[in-house]
Write a structure and sequence with these properties.
about 140 residues; mainly alpha; 3-stranded antiparallel sheet; about 10% strand
């Protein structure tokens, strides 16, 4: 790999202006640092924003990653994934040092990310891990 820097023609100087602010005269005397690059594909709105389906998929992925980025939520998801039947919120709360409002907050984030589901039975809520939640947990385990 050639690590030598290009030499400037006699009497030329490198421009410190941004690429958009360069004049025609500057571009004639300036040697680009990394050759010609084409950004045509980035200038079209569809390439920048993606399709609606791609944006929705990326948003869902980001929400799931945010939900999995907390150790308490990971432990909750693991606890729920290991259970053969839905678990009452009171049983979940006993397993953690946090108080019930904090536990409910974490469960809501996991539920909104599609990693767990719940149902009300009287005054109590019962939670279980979804297939996607179990799959996400197994993927996270491979990172360790």
């Amino acid at each position: 790999m050639d690590t030598t820097l290009p030499t400037l023609p006699t009497g030329s100087t490198l421009s410190t202006r941004s690429p958009r602010a360069r004049s025609k005269r500057d571009s004639e005397t300036t040697i680009p640092c990394c050759g010609e690059t084409s950004l045509e594909t980035l200038e079209t709105p569809s390439a920048i924003s993606g399709t609606g389906a791609q944006t929705a998929t990326l948003t869902t992925l980001a929400d799931r990653l945010k939900a999995l980025a907390d150790s308490t939520r990971l432990r909750m998801l693991q606890l729920l994934a290991e259970q053969p039947a839905p678990l009452c919120v009171c049983d979940i709360t006993r397993e953690f040092a946090q108080h019930q409002p904090t536990i409910s907050h974490h469960l809501r984030i996991l539920r909104n990310a599609g990693l767990i589901r719940s149902e009300k039975r009287g005054v109590w809520s019962y939670y279980w891990a979804t297939v996607e939640g179990k799959r996400s947990l197994s993927i996270v385990r491979t990172l360790i």
